[in-house]
Amino acid sequence: MSVADKSQKKSGGVGETISVIIQALLLALVIRTFLFQPFSIPSGSMRPTLLEGDYLFVTKWAYGYSHHSMPFSPNLFSGRIFGSAPERGDVAVFKFPPNPSLDYIKRVIGLPGDRVQMREGQLYINGEAVAREKVGEINNPDITELNRPVEVWRETLPNGVSYDTLDLTPNGVGDNTREFVVPAGHYFMMGDNRDNSTDSRFSVGYVPEENLVGRANIIFFSIADGASPLEVWKWPSSLRASRLFGMVR
């Protein structure tokens, strides 16, 4: 084989490698934009449903697409394309209305037109108390972040969706609120960790439908103690194996 042939073969190999890399990146971009987006839980606001160190797949098509569905949220259009309304009780990722560069994750509690209020720790929707029963206590700092037992209450929304909430503090700051009336095209979000959640009761406010990113569906990885998934040597002590591939409800 001549020097020219060797050079041409080497050049072709490099070109093919670059082409494969570009195609892989484009495929990853399409998947992230239109299908699935990985999301890590940054805070304890959704405990006990979601824990810090949980890694989720969020389905992007669940609510249709807005400009926030795309990386860096380019302002290409307004509203939603192929829009589908969230269901009450969905766990949804959305852009924080005061600062859309931040992703938040909460539970959809109020739909457009709903009246939502907290009275003495009890959730009311449209003037009716949401079914709520105490199911026990948790005394596990990995779940509660506290070194003491915490009460667990199960709520069941009018559409039958049930989930557990934590009651860290009786008469907490968010246990008694004014009545919120959800505007058209907006949603009212709350964290399951009711006494430790910045949500629509506070600075989050009403979430515009175009701020919705997707619905949380499955936990594909979970690790405790602030460890990184890349710190494989910590897996034996920190991996939450029982949470892997669990559905988000």
TrEMBL record:
GO MF annotation: an example: serine-type endopeptidase activity
Main enzyme class: hydrolase
Domain of life: Bacteria
Keywords: Hydrolase, Membrane, Protease, Transmembrane, Transmembrane helix
Family annotation (Gene3D superfamilies): Umud Fragment, subunit A
Any Pfam family matching the protein: Peptidase_S26
All residue ranges annotated as the Peptidase S26 domain in the record: 16-221
Active site: S45, K106
GO CC terms in record: membrane
Localization (cell): Membrane
Parts of the chain that traverse the membrane: 20-39
Catalytic function, reaction form: Cleavage of hydrophobic, N-terminal signal or leader sequences from secreted and periplasmic proteins
EC number(s) from the headed UniProt entry: 3.4.21.89
Family indicated by similarity: Belongs to the peptidase S26 family.
NCBIfam families named in the record: sigpep_I_bact (TIGR02227)
Protein name, entry field: Signal peptidase I
Record lineage: Bacteria, Pseudomonadati, Pseudomonadota, Alphaproteobacteria, Hyphomicrobiales
